[in-house]
Amino acid sequence: MSTSSFLVQRLSQTAQLPTRGSALAAGYDLYSAEDKTVLAQGKALISTGLAIAVPEGTYGRVAPRSGLASKYMIDTGAGVIDADYRGEVKVLLFNLSQSDFEVKQGDRVAQLILERIVTPDVQEVESLAETGRGAGGFGSTGGFGAVAGVAAEEPVPVAEPQNGSKSS
Fold first, then answer.
1. What are 151-167's pLDDT values in tens digits?
2. How far apart are the first and last CA of the chain?
3. What is the value of pTM for the model shown?
């Protein structure tokens, strides 16, 4: 497909076309085409009622909305939409809070960011050139650093809210 247009097809009458919140917004808001509950500490697949065709040389990345993340602890997952995918765009929402989260038809549930993609051929080599960083990862470049005494494979516990306050 050789187009610079972002093509969108409505698959249901409740679908809303993606919109940008401002002229300089990086993402297009995606809207729920249904009512659905995301259970506390659970996940749900939200229908947008849309199929899309992204411009050549790009893919769609479904990203969280900052307000949902900061106010309600709602995050997104599995957010890559390949240029050749033509099925319905759905949004996987994770509810990290202790309270159920109600999604209503027409709610903005995520944002779609179109990103350029580079897909070079894979070339196997015997070794890679050394760098100053080397194999260091998971906090090795400074800032927070590694958690002392915790192996990289072990989950790091999340602090619970203090003084009985709710996290949502």
1. 555 555 555 555 544 44
2. 44
3. 0.78
